[in-house]
């Protein structure tokens, strides 16, 4: 299918869709890459924003699909969601500059001084742009790991923390196995502590460590950000639903990386259809290259 044909078919789909108002809103809110403004009488430039714009648009989409940002959670999660609600409101007003500045303020991003202009450069990977700051609060959990070797220094229950959820594949079926009880070799185990990886091992130990009793620190998250563990993936293989801690989560979107351009786009999943949003184009398109795509993060909303 040609690009022009894809746009025509998608426009027809959007026009006849029960979510036409949502499609119209998204079309009107497609951001432009970067912005420049005056903040406190200082010229401020925000550049290379493709790594953050998809996440901010997802926040807007979440705020319109549910009441998650208005509910009460832990103090730490409430603080995050207050910022995300402010961002979604600014995006709703098509005020992308202020929305980006709000996220910069929340993450305490450092600026670069170029002549008389303050520059915030998002020429980063998505982990640094938003994932680490958001996931470490949103979905951080702790779990026990126990070694069955009585001579091991790590025999006793040891609490570890992580915020990582990884899409994995078993044969031809994709599974989210992060919260399942697992047994791993003790001498190869990596402990994830506060988002920083440390290797803690006893090289003489050949025991097995059980990872179990996972529990969320800030309560069950209303949405999840799942890492894609594959370099390339067919978009139609992405699970539409996952179960985490007996809770069902539905796919709402994912981010796509174009390596040849070092550029990120957002792919939303609406009415059983994928649509792609690119901050370098003022249009909504249907992804044509469905096979062997580099997806980075996948977003799921709790039902």
Give a written overview of the molecule:
The chain is an alpha+beta fold and 303 residues long. It has 2 domains: 3-139 and 218-302, no CATH class; 141-216, no CATH class. The protein contains 6 helices and 19 strands. The chain has helices at residues 3-16, 20-29, 50-65, 75-92, 96-107, 126-138, and strands at 35-39, 42-47, 112-114, 117-121, 141-147, 158-162, 166-170, 173-176, 182-185, 191-193, 196-198, 208-216, 223-228, 241-244, 247-258, 263-270, 273-277, 284-285, 294-302. Strands 7, 8, 13, 14, 15, 16, 17, 18 and 19 form a 9-stranded mixed β-sheet that branches. Helix 3 crosses helix 4 and helix 4 runs antiparallel to helix 5. It starts with a helix and ends with a strand. Residues 1-10, 171-177 and 188-203 have low confidence and may be disordered.
Structural class: alpha+beta
Strand portion, in percent? Answer: 25-35%
Estimated radius of gyration: 21 Å
User: How many domain regions?
Assistant: 2
Cα-to-Cα separation, first versus last residue: 34 Å
Uncertain parts: 1-10, 171-177, 188-203
Number of helices: 6
Largest sheet: 9 strands, mixed
H-E string: HHEEHHHEEHEEEEEEEEEEEEEEE
- Helix share bin: 25-40%
Describe the SSE topology:
Elements: H1 3-16, H2 20-29, E1 35-39, E2 42-47, H3 50-65, H4 75-92, H5 96-107, E3 112-114, E4 117-121, H6 126-138, E5 141-147, E6 158-162, E7 166-170, E8 173-176, E9 182-185, E10 191-193, E11 196-198, E12 208-216, E13 223-228, E14 241-244, E15 247-258, E16 263-270, E17 273-277, E18 284-285, E19 294-302
Parallel strand pairs: 2-4, 7-13
Antiparallel strand pairs: 1-2, 3-4, 5-6, 5-12, 7-8, 9-12, 10-11, 13-19, 14-15, 15-16, 15-19, 16-17, 17-18
Helix pairs in contact: 3-4, 4-5
């Amino acid at each position: 299918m040609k690009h022009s044909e894809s746009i025509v078919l998608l426009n027809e789909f959007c026009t006849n869709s029960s979510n036409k108002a949502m499609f119209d809103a998204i079309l009107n809110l497609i951001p432009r890459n970067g912005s420049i403004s005056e903040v406190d009488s200082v010229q401020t430039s925000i550049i290379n924003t493709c790594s953050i714009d998809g996440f901010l648009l997802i926040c807007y989409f979440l705020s319109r699909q549910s009441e998650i940002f208005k509910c009460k959670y832990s103090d730490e999660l409430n603080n995050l969601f207050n910022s995300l609600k402010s961002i979604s409101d600014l995006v709703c007003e098509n005020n992308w500059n202020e929305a980006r500045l709000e996220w910069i303020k929340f993450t305490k991003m450092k600026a670069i001084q170029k002549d008389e202009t303050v520059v915030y450069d998002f020429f980063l990977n998505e982990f640094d742009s938003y994932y680490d700051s958001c996931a470490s609060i949103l979905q951080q959990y702790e779990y026990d790991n126990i070694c069955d070797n009585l001579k091991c220094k790590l025999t006793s229950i040891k609490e570890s923390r992580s915020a990582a959820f990884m899409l994995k594949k078993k044969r031809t079926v994709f599974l989210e196995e992060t919260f399942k009880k697992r047994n791993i070799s003790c001498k190869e185990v990596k402990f994830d502590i506060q988002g920083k990886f440390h290797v803690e091992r006893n090289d003489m130990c050949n025991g097995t460590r059980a990872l179990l009793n996972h529990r969320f620190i800030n309560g069950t998250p209303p949405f999840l950000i799942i890492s894609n563990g594959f370099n390339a993936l067919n978009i139609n293989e992405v699970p539409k639903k996952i179960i985490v801690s007996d809770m069902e989560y539905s796919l709402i979107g994912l981010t796509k990386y174009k390596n040849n351009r070092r550029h990120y786009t957002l792919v939303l999943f609406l009415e059983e259809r994928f649509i792609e949003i690119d901050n370098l184009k003022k249009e909504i398109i249907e992804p044509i290259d469905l096979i062997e795509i580099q997806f980075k993060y996948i977003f799921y909303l709790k039902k």
